[in-house]
Amino acid sequence: MTNDYALVLNAGSSSLKFCVYQKPKGGAWDLGARGQIEGIGTAPRLTAKDAGGLVLVDQEPDIAVRDGRDALQAVTSWLRSRFGNAPLLGVGHRVVHGGARFTAPTVVTPQILAELHRLTPLAPLHQPYNLAPIEAALERLPGVPQVACFDTSFHRSQPAVADVVPLPREICLAGVQRYGFHGLSYEYIASVLPEVAPEIAGGRVIVAHLGNGASLCAMKGGRSVDNSLGFTALDGLCMGTRPGSLDPGVVLYLFQTLGMNAKEVETILYKKCGLLGISGISKDMRDLLKSDEPSARLAVDYFVYRAAKEIGALTAVLGGIDGLVFTAGIGENSAEIRRRICESSAWLGIELDVEANACRRARISTASSKVSAWVIPTNEELMIARHTAHVLGLSGARPLAARGGTL
Predict the structure, then answer these.
(1) Mean pLDDT for each 10-residue chunk of the chain (407 residues)?
(2) Separation between Cα atoms, residue 320 and residue 399, nearest integer Å
């Protein structure tokens, strides 16, 4: 196979998702393969499908996969067997935090990589894992451009008042502000709204990205106005293991009264709170919905309560709402959670179509609903691919062939 191709990587703590986009000479970019390595460090498994859903591989990797570097090696080994010596023109990466400086996708240099590492305390669950495959790719593929695409960039259109953290000015000038996250997901939803839901695309829309990490974004005319996440990915909604909005006095109590150190507090806030903390059972919404335990029911109730409360707040920010969009793991797959959030938000004018919701149709509100509700699958990888192609000028015929490398 001689088609040029670009690679997209979305790295997490225990998985590495990847997509391959191919371009015949003079042709357009198309999805060639989508896959992931799950169970990094425990029971790794490599799976991939083509654009039509045909399984291309489903097996244990050929090498031991102990960390993100090993995962990248396993992926590139499989890509070599699949795509041969086809030129690899660039690699796009999801990076959760871009800080105040990185407001758009950028080609990574060692200096930029060092700056991104300094943001790790603001996203300890994500940043180290996002950056590990970039480091490995810079070493293994020195001639191939690496493009970092940031979850914070989409929210830079927010007004200054939405970015403010009310601390002393000298602290804020050092970079303490609200950044917002899940931007690649929200940017993708904004890009497809004109096609999927044209009646609300130019209006006031709240998008609910509900998964293990959860947030809401208020959009007006497809641009971010506000986001429930802030300086770090701990704010806003209740999440799988993160608390969402929390009285700062609680953190002081953990330090001053319970005598915890900074690492212990960080571990609690990022790994032991949220659905897991409330239920004491699981961080997985599917487990909690099946459970008869009172603590599981309370966790689900709180998740819905916080979402409905934040939807009301963002509606006030927008001065009204025209549409509500559900996306991500819970948002796309849990009819029960969508139903409960819509019913809790019925006062806004949302009238749920029960059958459409159960069948997960694109529009899940009735034809007469004053505010429409939708389910739109997100595609962060495609958004990364678009940014990578734009930054590297890959829309033309082989503009970077001389710089390309092979796996």
Answers:
(1) 75 84 71 88 88 89 82 86 78 92 93 93 87 88 90 94 95 92 96 96 97 96 96 95 96 97 96 97 96 98 98 98 97 98 97 97 97 96 89 54 35
(2) 46
**What tokens does 29 get?**
């970019």
| CA pair distance 194, 200, nearest whole angstrom | 8
Which amino acid appears at position 194 of this protein? P
92 in Cβ contact with 145 (< 8 Å): no
> Quick one: which of 248, 224, 222 has its CA closest to 235?
248
**3-class secondary structure for the chain?**
CCCEEEEEEEECCCEEEEEEEEECCCCCCEEEEEEEEECCCCCCEEEEECCCCCEEEEECCCCCCCCHHHHHHHHHHHHHHHHCCCCEEEEEEEECCCCCCCCCCEECCHHHHHHHHCCHHHCCCCHHHHHHHHHHHHHHCCCCCEEEEECCHHHHHCCHHHHCCCCCHHHHCCCCCCCCCCHHHHHHHHHHHHHHCHHHHCCEEEEEEECCCEEEEEEECCEEEEECCCCCCCCCCCCCCCCCCCCHHHHHHHHHCCCCCHHHHHHHHHHCCHHHHHHCCCCCHHHHHHCCCHHHHHHHHHHHHHHHHHHHHHHHHHCCCCEEEEEHHHHHHCHHHHHHHHHHCHHHCECECHHHHHCCCCECECCCCCEEEEECCCCHHHHHHHHHHHHHCCCCCCCCCCCCECC
Q: How far is the C-alpha of 63 from the C-alpha of 75, rounded, in Å?
A: 10
Alpha-carbon distance of 406 to 327, in angstroms, equals 35
Cα(12)–Cα(10) distance, rounded to whole angstroms?
A: 7
- For the record, the structure tokens of 321 come out as 């709402």
Q: Which residues are catalytic?
A: 151
What domains lie within the chain, and their CATH numbers? Answer: 4-156+381-392 (3.30.420.40), 198-375 (3.30.420.40)
- Confidence (pLDDT) at 63: 82
What pLDDT score does 403 carry? 34
